[in-house]
Give the backbone structure.
Amino acid sequence: MRRFALIALPCAWLLALFLVPFLIVLKISLSDIALAIPPYTPTLDLSAGWQGIRAFFSALDFDNFRFLATDDLYWKSYISSLQIAFLATLMTLFVGYPIAYGMANAPDHWRPTLMMLVILPFWTSFLIRVYSWMGILSTEGYLNQLLLWLGVISTPLTILNTPTAVYIGIVYTYLPFMVLPIYSALERMDGSLLEAAEDLGCSRVKAFWLITVPLSKTGIIAGCFLVFIPVIGEFVIPSLLGGSQTLMIGKVLWEEFFNNRDWPVASAVAVVLLLILIVPIVLFQMNEQKSREADQ
Amino acid sequence: MAQTVFEPWNDPEAKPLIQFKGVTKRFGDFTAIDNQTFDIYEREFFALLGPSGCGKTTMMRMLAGFEKPTEGTILLGGQDMAPIPPNKRAVNMMFQSYALFPHLSVWENIAFGLKRDGKPKDVIAARVDEMLKLTRLQQFARRKPHQISGGQRQRVALARSLAKAPKLLLLDEPMGALDAKLRQATQFELMDIQEKTGTTFVIVTHDQEEAMTVASRVAVMDHGRIIQADTPANIYEMPNSVYVADFIGEVTIIPGKAHKRGNGYDIAFAEGQPTLHSETDAALDNGQTCYLALRPEKVSISAEKPADRTNTVQGRIIDIAYLGNLSTYHVQLPNGQMIKAQAANTRRLSRRDFSWEDTVWLSWTDTAAVLLKG
Ligand SMILES: Nc1ncnc2c1ncn2[C@@H]1O[C@H](COP(=O)(O)OP(=O)(O)OP(=O)(O)O)[C@@H](O)[C@H]1O
Ligand SMILES: [Mg+2]
């Protein structure tokens, strides 16, 4: 009974904050657009009794999903989002791993400070931080000013409103999600393992590849998913830093909702996005499970 | 049959394999190894013995190359080791913490060093199987380190360090987690390996009996210093200090004042007690404070005063420690001094000669005890 009570709380939480909203979105995705408030039909009319419910369900259909398949804007956006998320995840890994490695190998008394520096950006609003990147990357921005002053370039670079700016924004924003799990994996590693590897004839570099990397694997995988999953649906970064060439599904979704006021299609986009995300989410959970087992 | 004794440390011609020359190791302002100079010879089985924290592991780590001496040099085969990184030394170490690779199986752990040498596959496989057999781990080859017991892990660590058959093997408490039978078998295996391959072993152990069994020489350490390095027999029979005598085996230390008589000294150890006599080569001043180190097995215990022994004292049995084949009697003299005496249990327990509170005579010869200055 107590077990049940313990489980009931998170279940209720999930039900209220995930399942119910999801069912509402799913329902809207099966509806048709209408010039009304709310902007879709049908709406459930319980006063009409059984008849009303029958009419409600018979009016639902998969037209919006069929529409998504016919218009290539949508599937191109999905593909492009996956692509951007994939590349950005790799870049974040390449930037994040050395940082995590440096932190894990720093003297003990430095670690809390370094940890705080990684988390510190979270204390400022995300939007403000992305806006400040606009200030840095724009044609008259600080970066161009610096490069011009150093004489590295003679004409300002166009970075803002290009995919490059989107990647910079993503790597910057999601870096902590990559660094922290890798750091925690590296920090748990026993230093004498590297000594043992060296003792048995490994060079430092070889020992890194044969021991450090495999032992931080769960941290790497966790970090990659923690970046990859939210980046697929990312909206703020591509709309503020990216130009019209950057196609991301989060932006399409936003435009569908707020520019076209087409809630049913927007909901269909969201449902498909969720279906796509299930795969990496499940893989992520499996990785976590495995690392927990390895810890025992 | 003329068997040559293996005593290269007594041979001025012999070239040591390892030479410590004024080696000091400090961590911050803590001195872990204090200005040590000593040699270890090829084919030796050199045991480091000492209390926890005395610097045994530090000594090994300097040999393996993980720590650099703060002062002094370490030579291996006449070559200064300072610039040579651990992976280029013909030295393998078994870590006190085992340091097994958790993501590799037992088999892969043992093969790790061999693979780094780029040996052919079948050679590696044969060698790993040999090691598995030696350490009796065949049925665990596919398991990961977290899936085996502590003793099995220790054997994997041992097998891994043995696999490359290095010139010098450093074993940091290689058998602590093994049961008595397996430990003994492993000790004999190690000695056998050493006979066959001529590998030099430096081994850390907390088990005196183990050190006595396997070692060609035992080094007793304290606070970063080797107090005495000698054969097990000499360490036991001729300790150079109260510390060594006390550390190795059971002993009674009797403090007293020395007075020269004949080939030795009379030791006055208590008011109203007869002086004790001990033969020795050591030179002491008249009236100098000295210590008699007396091993319990060299003290006879009897009900009547023996007539033919130089040293006889009378006391009361306070405690009897039953060790199976032997019993140790703790006898208190009138002045409070305790003396341990050991006797073989030739009879069944119920028919034992002496019991608690019995008054008995203890006696020993004039060469039984070692006279120490401090
Ligand atoms: N990296 C280090 N930094 C500071 N002090 C150290 C370091 N390594 C060892 N020491 C100190 O040096 C001393 C000797 O350590 P060492 O590990 O050699 O002891 P040990 O003789 O192997 O002990 P045990 O029998 O417990 O294994 C200890 O007092 C220890 O605290
Ligand atoms: Mg140690």
User: Anything to note?
Assistant: The mean pLDDT of chain A is 90. Residues 195 and 239 of chain A are 49 Å apart (CA to CA). The beta strands of chain A are 32-33, 40-41. The interface with chain B takes residues 190, 192-193, 195-203, 206, 211, 214-215, 217, 294, 296 of chain A (CB under 8 Å).
